[in-house]
Amino acid sequence: MTDTRPRSSALRAPLDAILSSQARMRLMRDLVRHGGLLAAPTLVHRTRLAKRTVQLALDDLEEIGIVDSSGNARTRLYRFDPRHPLAASIAALFEAERARFDEII
After folding, report:
1. C-alpha distances out from residue 56 to 16, 23, 88, 105, Å
2. What is the pLDDT of residues 47-103, one digit of tens each?
3. pTM for the full predicted model
């Protein structure tokens, strides 16, 4: 049976797009915790994701506006964009996640 419901857009449901994959979640978590600029190869190393997976996820997150980049193609640096309307809420979710884990341990 085919799902005939309209797909949600990043405009209507941005959390669907931002948090829709483990790769995006891992990248967002790392960018939020770091708080500064990181190169894609550094994110590959830190998240243990494939280079192509990281690049695709970063491109998607940048298009959504939750990740910002600077530099050119060879020296592009990425960061979590605190100006995004959902930035504070997403950062709070990751902080609560970390605090919960620390409490368990």
Report:
1. 16, 9, 24, 34
2. 999 999 999 999 999 999 999 999 987 789 999 999 999 999 999 999 999 999 988
3. 0.82
